[in-house]
Amino acid sequence: xxxxxxxxxxxxxxxxxxxxxxxxxxxxxxxxxxxxxxxxxxxxxxxxxxxxxxxxxxxxxxxxxxxxxxxxxxxxxxxxxxxxxxxxxxxxxxxxxxxxxxxxxxxxxxxxxxxxxxxxxxxxxxxxxxxxxxxxxxxxxxxxxxxxxxxxxxxxxxxxxxxxxxxxxxxxxxxxxxxxxxx
Length: 183
Fold this sequence. Notes:
By secondary structure, the chain is mainly α. Helices cover 82% and strands 0% of the residues.
């Protein structure tokens, strides 16, 4: 199944980016997202070797100018936003409740995602990951009797939303920004 998914996503990347540096860049990103998806789903961990090395690869590749449409400022601000937007609430939650509510792996993963797709991508990914994750959690509670305090890995939702962004997110974000200019 993993190989089939990888093949389908690779074909989709080829259709979207043709043979360009963006194809290779986003293939590395998509492959990392797929690996994190399955690892976090099975073991509830996100390996630092993927997220930290991925952050360096994303920032370095964009800084080298190999990805059209993204600058080093986009990459760096996406990295910072991606890390802080989850880090701050995680710290607050842990101080109030006395237990960890969000793993450090999710924080590092969103920072990596930001390094690859920039700050607008981070906002898109966090919105869709939270929305889809909430639907899945509510369905688990309603139909399976899952406890509302049962741990749910957030990495699979982050990675799925990041893949969605690579394929259609920029277009959705651009349209949303255009709508904002009407008001």
